[in-house]
Input
Amino acid sequence: MSYKDYLEVEKQNYFGTEMYRSYYLFDNTLQNHVALSKSVRKFDGLAYLDKILINMNALNASILNSIVLILISLWGYFSSETPSPTALIPLFFGVIILLCFKGIKNHNKVISHIAVLLTLIVLLALFMPLMGSVNRGDTLATTRISMMILTSVISMIAFIKSFIEARKNKS
Output
């Protein structure tokens, strides 16, 4: 498929309601898949980051988020010249979310909602330290906090997707 053909396929809006990333633009395997199926869904080409994220379930996302919260807050605390106990707040949230593992795995609605609530609280709470690190010009702290925010967002999305799917399966 030529680039011109690909642009024609794109004009027909097969990507309209589906996740699409511009770096797929010159990937012939995706172009051919879209041309044949008129959709980007079920594309089994290279595992790009967004494909991994699209297929992430709530359990894996919460484990990833917990580990990132724990490790990065330890890193921030021990790498600081003047460590503050508040740097360990994400660690405590990460540990509690990690303790919800069994309930999330067993699709326990109450425990899953507790994990979502904790994830949302930590996500919102991380914005103040992010602003502070940006204002100080501390690139490393900004990166650490951004990584925790990113995994928390991924976890929230995975939980929301799992709740929607559970509701669909219930009815």
In short: The chain is about 70% helix and 0% strand. The first helix runs from residue 3 to 11. The two ends are 42 Å apart (CA to CA). Residues 15-26 have pLDDT under 50 and may be disordered.
